[in-house]
């Protein structure tokens, strides 16, 4: 009897076949290089095919070298910025990402956009798509890798959406002007005065003495977010978007997602306190209010409200589309703690798609109002642990490794309370349990809506599946 299964045999045969094919391509490439031009089209295509096989064999180091050879041929024959490189750059991105080469991935994403901007006219749909893709990547990169600052040591300042640590700076608000500045923690001695007079005059004097070390809040925002924000704004101004309300709404949600990311970043900074310092940056003092966050909230609120008005004026728009826009507006208010405004927006959504009675039958509650799972707000934003955050398509099947059963209370303002783990699948680690509980405690969720009002629901029993 053999101790080798049929599947193992098939795998070995496939592996041997792949290696044989790779060797055949290498031989063919060597022959072409010896007998013909080193920049022939045939040699380029052979290198491309070989690189794809090397990637299939997970030999990404070799694939990178092979793809660079193909790119060199393209540049010699068609110019430095030929669009023929696009396919090759996309393959290079796959291999560099697989090897964890973050700097190379960033460089090639930027180079990919540069090629397309050099090659396509401003109104070319391909350039519009490339611009959005480049903007999307910048946002995704920020959310996954965390903010970096030219004023901080990246090794200590680097963080992510799921694990912020911006303790290098302390947020300080001038009591007279209301301006929030970021003071490096190692320069906070100018603020330390536990025995001094706790007056506005004293505090203002300290603010002035620390101003040479301070950094404006806007300056702290990561360049990737600034870059993406500018590109989304340009796309909104394009004629294609101006004649398509759904397109405008989608882009505005992406802009709002950036604004919400800024808020989370500033929230993290303003939570940073300095023990023994005076007044507004003490542990128990009110949190400083950033003009940057207020401006982000207002600008996007007004834009979302304007788009809802346009949807309501547009003939033939499905009420569910308008209702979903109101729900997202409610989420926006809730995410910035504007509770009354959030409640009003949720009620407007309910009025559009509330259950309708017809004789003895009633339409079921619309899943938009009461989904089967709790949804962090804003729903359109990219949240940690989500498919959007991980780049996983919504329809892709996942092989889940386990689950965690939780009972909780969801109050009318979207706060999770009395969360309790009831059961888990075998092998669920304490790290996973803690990560889920922290996530639920730190985020507002879209509240349950009944009869047009947000309500508190107790003893919600939910199962969270996880995969990694």
Write a structural description.
The chain is mainly alpha-helical and 468 residues long. The protein contains 16 helices and ten strands. It has a three-stranded antiparallel sheet, with no helix packed on it. Helix 11 (245-270) packs antiparallel against helix 12 (291-313). The chain is globular and about 75 Å long. Mean pLDDT is 84; it is low at 149-166, 192-199, 273-284 and 356-364.
Topology:
Blueprint: H1 6-35, H2 41-56, H3 60-78, H4 85-98, H5 102-119, H6 125-145, H7 154-157, E1 169-173, E2 180-184, H8 200-210, E3 215-216, H9 223-237, H10 239-242, H11 245-270, H12 291-313, H13 319-335, H14 339-353, E4 357-358, E5 361-362, H15 387-390, E6 402-410, E7 416-424, H16 430-442, E8 448-450, E9 453-455, E10 457-466
Labels describing this entry:
globular, 468 residues, 16 helices, mainly alpha, three-stranded antiparallel beta sheet, 10 strands, 53% helix
Query: How many strands, what sense, and barrel or not for the largest sheet?
Result: 3 strands, antiparallel
Tell me the total number of β-strands: 10
Would you tell me the overall average pLDDT?
84
Q: What share of residues are in beta strands?
A: 5-15%
Order of helices and strands: HHHHHHHEEHEHHHHHHEEHEEHEEE
> Termini separation (Å)?
37 Å
Q: Provide the helix percentage.
A: 40-55%
Q: Ranges with pLDDT <50 over ≥5 residues? A: 149-166, 192-199, 273-284, 356-364
Q: What is Rg?
A: 27 Å
Q: What is the general shape?
A: globular
């Amino acid at each position: 009897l053999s101790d080798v299964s049929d599947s193992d045999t098939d795998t070995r045969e496939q592996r041997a076949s792949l290696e044989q094919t790779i060797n055949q391509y290498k031989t063919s490439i060597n022959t072409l290089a010896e007998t013909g031009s080193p920049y022939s089209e045939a040699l380029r295509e052979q290198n491309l095919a070989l690189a794809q096989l090397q990637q299939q064999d997970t030999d990404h180091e070799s694939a990178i070298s092979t793809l660079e050879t193909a790119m060199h041929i393209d540049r010699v024959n068609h110019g430095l910025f030929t669009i023929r490189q696009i396919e090759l750059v996309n393959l290079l991105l796959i291999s560099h990402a697989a090897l964890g080469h973050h700097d190379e991935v960033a460089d090639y994403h930027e180079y990919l956009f540069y090629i397309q901007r050099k090659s396509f006219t401003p109104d070319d749909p391909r350039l519009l798509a490339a611009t959005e893709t480049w903007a999307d990547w910048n946002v995704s990169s920020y959310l996954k890798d965390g903010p970096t600052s030219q004023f901080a040591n990246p090794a200590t300042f680097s963080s992510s959406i799921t694990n912020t640590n911006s303790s290098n700076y302390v947020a300080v608000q001038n009591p007279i002007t209301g301006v929030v500045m970021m003071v490096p923690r190692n320069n906070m001695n100018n603020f330390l005065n536990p025995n001094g007079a706790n007056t506005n005059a004293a505090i203002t004097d300290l603010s002035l003495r620390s101003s040479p070390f301070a950094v404006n809040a806007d300056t702290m925002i990561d360049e990737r977010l600034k870059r993406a924000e500018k590109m989304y704004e340009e796309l909104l101004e394009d004629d294609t978007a101006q004649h398509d309300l759904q397109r405008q709404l989608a882009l505005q949600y992406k802009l709002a997602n950036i604004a919400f990311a800024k808020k989370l970043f500033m929230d993290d900074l303003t939570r940073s306190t300095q023990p023994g310092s005076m007044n507004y940056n003490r542990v128990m003092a009110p949190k400083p209010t950033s003009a940057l966050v207020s401006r982000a909230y207002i600008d996007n609120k007004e834009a979302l409200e304007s788009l809802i008005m346009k949807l309501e004026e547009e003939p033939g728009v499905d009420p569910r589309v308008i209702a979903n826009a109101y729900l997202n507006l409610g989420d926006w208010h809730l995410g910035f703690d504007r509770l009354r405004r959030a409640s009003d927006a949720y009620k407007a959504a309910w009025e559009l798609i509330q259950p309708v009675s017809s004789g003895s039958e009633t339409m079921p509650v619309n899943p938009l109002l009461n989904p089967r799972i709790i949804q962090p707000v804003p729903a359109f934003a990219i949240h940690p642990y989500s498919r959007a955050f991980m780049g996983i398509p919504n329809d892709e099947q996942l092989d889940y490794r386990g689950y965690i059963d939780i009972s909780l209370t969801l109050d009318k303002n979207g706060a999770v309370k009395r969360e309790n783990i009831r059961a888990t699948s075998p092998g669920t680690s304490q790290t996973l349990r803690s990560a889920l509980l922290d996530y639920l405690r730190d985020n507002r969720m879209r509240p349950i809506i009944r009869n047009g009002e947000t309500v508190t629901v107790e003893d919600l029993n939910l199962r969270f599946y996880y995969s990694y």
